[in-house]
Write a structure and sequence with these properties.
single chain, 427 residues, OB fold (Dihydrolipoamide Acetyltransferase, E2P), 2 domains, binds S-adenosylmethionine
Length: 427
Amino acid sequence: MTRPRESPWDEPLFELIDSVSSKLLGSADLRGNSLASAVHRVSEAYLRQRGSPLELRADREALCARLKFFLPRDLPKIGAPLAELAAVSAFPRRSALRVLDLGAGLGATSLGLAEFAFTRAGVTRVEVDAVDCDPQALAIAAELGSGWARLRGHDLRLRTRCASLDAAALSHARPPYDLIVLGFVLNELGDQQSDAVSHHCDWLRRCSELLSADGALIALEPALRAQSRTLQEVRSRLADSPGPPYVFAPCLHLGACPLLARERDWCHQQLALSFPARLASIARDAGLRSASPTFSYLTLHRAPRSLRELDGGARLQRIVSGALPSKGKLEFLICGEGSEQRIRRLDRHASDENQPLSDARRGDVLRVTGSRTDASVLQITPQSRVERLPAAGVDLGAAPPSAAGYDTPLQQPTETPPQHGSGPDTR
Ligand SMILES: C[S@@+](CC[C@H](N)C(=O)[O-])C[C@H]1O[C@@H](n2cnc3c(N)ncnc32)[C@H](O)[C@@H]1O
């Protein structure tokens, strides 16, 4: 059982970050405007607007931006796919969890994983093999890992290895791993590939061979259109081939991805979290949105497991857009087993039974009974019952998102305007 989460950010975490920055970054330990402009520069590189992630390597001011802003901002994201595994008892049952973090960077995903894992009854130790090609990033990860273990009083052992993510890196791994995580690195690997989808499928298949029989692999990616759509194509290809690995989430079905049909759509998640004042202020100064972190993800399982197990006998639908603006009705894009692509409730049909639709948010999984299907629309009647399943990590203990709660730069020259509420979000 998972104990309820409190806010993923607390003052001791920020104190740890500050002490690591001061100890390891020296003159590049930035504050105020210089920190905000480094954050802005890193964001531009992530967005490929100016520079690229590759050019950030060995850039100590960029490391400081990653440590003081991107790491705490991104740390809670892995909790959402992990909570989904836990919701159907597919979280590996091990007291000492073995984790491989590929492209670990400063360790944001590993720390987020540890924060989640130690809320699980029975988990006493987390051992992470953290691999990255950037030795300075790994030095920070190691320092943060030991500091975090002291701070939380948990047995987290983070071992770093500096290596490029290729076949040789995997041959030096120490399988089996209960969890393998790739936090925001696939897109960087894809920059070097002419066919990123084939590369990622091949790479994820190889990685998943290192999993234990009940292990899972989670790839997080930025909630950008191109990168999320690449992940959707990877998912489609893996879902069409015999496992292992098996597609576990975010999909509730193995059919065609409805958000690939139109170029303007992309599947991503949004955590209903308000940033603490310190993060919000850096975000504002750097021209980034200051709430509701976003990401896309793909969870693969070594065993034929699926998030569908939340309720095998019911109609489950995932909300894959924000509320679509329309007069006299409430609509969302949905993704589920049937042919329906929208859920619609006329305002006059709102009732206690279907009330949870009023509060639905991107990423929610709904169980719907007593609905009617008109072509591709799931029509909610006053008698329809709508339940929100407590599956997704969007429940990380949070204030509701602001209406425009994206962690997107305020100016978005590279993205199309939001279409039917399905975007846009960036890093
Ligand atoms: C955006 S950072 C993400 C770091 C961390 N996983 C997180 O969740 O915040 C991507 C990391 O992948 C690493 N990386 C990119 N390409 C790599 C490669 N070919 N081999 C090893 N590491 C790589 C970079 O050095 C960087 O630290």
